[in-house]
Design brief:
- This protein is of the alpha+beta class.
- 43% of the residues lie in helices and 14% in strands.
- Strands 1-3-2 form a three-stranded mixed β-sheet, covered by helices on one side.
- Helix 1 packs across helix 2.
- The two termini are 16 Å apart.
Length: 100
């Protein structure tokens, strides 16, 4: 079932997952909805912007998974020594969220 992605949905769910998984410690980024087919989501640490594409028809669960994925990037990008991208630590944390 297709879900309509909005900035409000991203912000509300960011707050929900931030509280649930990170005890509210993640610094809130700028949010964008984009319409690009080259990515599902992206966190840019230079502009502190989290964007999710609505190009593809996707379910709310798919959008939630993308948001959580980008929030993991946000978490690790706030670490001064982070250089791994989708490395071992990222994968370990992502596996803890597989149920979403």
């Amino acid at each position: 079932m297709q879900h309509k992605l909005t900035l409000s949905w991203i912000e509300q769910n960011f707050d929900k997952y931030n509280k649930e998984f990170w005890n509210g410690t993640l610094r809130k980024p700028n949010f964008q909805v984009c319409k690009t087919k080259s990515l599902l989501g992206q966190f840019n640490h230079r502009t502190w912007t989290l964007r999710i594409s609505n190009y593809f028809d996707r379910s709310e669960k798919d959008f939630a998974n993308t948001l959580i994925h980008e929030m993991i990037h946000l978490y690790f990008q706030s670490k001064a020594d982070w250089k791994e991208g989708h490395g071992r630590k990222f994968q370990a944390m992502a596996r803890t969220f597989d149920k979403y």
